[in-house]
Amino acid sequence: MTNKSKIASKVYLCVIFLFLYLPIFVLIIYSFNESKKGVNFTGFSLKWYKELLSNELIISSLMNTLKVAFISTIFATIIGTAAAVGIYSMKKIPRSIIMNATYIPIMNPEIVTGISMMLLFVFFRNFVDFEFGIGTLVIAHITFNIPYVILSVMPKLRQMNPYLYEAAQDLGCSPFQAFRKAVMPEIMPGVVSGFLIALTYSIDDFVISYFTSGASSQTLPITIYSMVRRKINPQINALSTLLFVSILIILIAKNIIEERKIRHAQKKEWDDD
Fold first, then answer.
1. What is the CATH number of domain 55-272?
2. What's the mean per-residue pLDDT of the chain?
3. CA neighbours closer than 13 Å in the CB half-sphere of residue 225
4. Is the pTM of this model over 0.90?
5. How far are the Cα atoms of 85, 113, 123, 131 from residue 127, in angstroms, in the given order?
6. How far apart, in whole angstroms, are the C-alpha atoms of residue 5 and residue 27?
């Protein structure tokens, strides 16, 4: 590659990152703006962060969001991991069919999923008396998160030695012990990645939550939409900044942990040699 090509590729990369992250940086800057009008920066202030922490509607919506996100992600991770192991043990043709079916919820527009889940819950209300709320939100979030967990775990299963599970049983492990001690450590990076992806999508989801939530169980994206629809509230800038920083910290921590694990594994291999 010539010097001109290298310079062009670096410039192109910088433009892409600028296009992606400049709006976020502008939002972060204006979250510290003293003025209530976002277009004029009149001075540095933490006023909107203080008001955000005292806003009961936002705090309640945040608690609902975190509750739904963690409960649905835990269940989706367990179900998705078990499903990935089951799919991996299938023969080639059935496995291909199931994997293609797994892609459908991901490719499907969210509004279709949201409306179909709402209609499903309305149908079941003819037989069981329940209200739209946290329960329906959790079920809906589990449904759309499972495929992401499956697609995160499957590559790790393919990389794993196919005879590892049988070898563990030959050495005296029960089926559960063989899975816990031999298989789980190998696929754990995929499980963690699937968990984080599902958690992020669950916190971020608006469309499906809009159709499956109740009046007293609104999530944070729905509350933000309701507030922004009337007027731009600077508290939203502060809230978005906190969410962005939180996700960034989680991703950095995950990468650091994985990097340390890789270095530890490499060091162990060198010591064995």
1. 1.10.3720.10
2. 85
3. 11
4. no
5. 34, 22, 8, 12
6. 34
